Amino acid sequence: MINEFTKIQWVQRVLWIGIGCQHGTSREFIENAIQQVCRSYHLASSAIAGVATIDTKANEAGIIELCHDNNWPLKTFSASVLNSVEVPHPSNMVVAKVGTKSVAEAAALCAIELNYCPIVQNRQDACSIKSEYCCRVGKMPTHERLLVPKQIFRSEEKAGSVTVAVAVCAIAHRG
């Protein structure tokens, strides 16, 4: 029963978190990095739709645990797909390590493209489709699709580093 003191908050899950991390980075360290980004940019963690990363991190324990504990889907993309995405902060160091100029930013952008493109049959091609049927996400400038550019977190006490980026899905208003 709802009374006059009950508040109902409804938050659409429109944020995709792109994650890049060193092998063995803990769930806690990844979660703290995401929480810090949410606080710094005034984002509701309840608006997180899922996590995206490179396919070589599909079995990374810290990421798997975090997604499981929060009931977030994990979307992964190959290095070649990620490398096809325009990002504001490409990295030569990331190219040398994993074969793509970006993991966190590109994965977040691929996830929003995949999430709102029901016509996509081949999920690996989700980022390459630039169709008006994709809710114009592919046509929006990168600075509008990427809500938070990559933020890098390192710790002296704990092993690993984490890169976090956040992309926002276009909200379709249905009449």
Automatic annotation (TrEMBL):
Gene3D superfamilies: CobE/GbiG C-terminal domain. Pfam families: CbiG_C. Coiled coil: none annotated. It comes from the Bacteria. InterPro entries: CbiG_hydrolase (IPR052553), CobE/GbiG_C (IPR002750), CobE/GbiG_C_sf (IPR036518). Residues 15-167 form the CobE/GbiG C-terminal domain. This is Cobalamin biosynthesis protein.
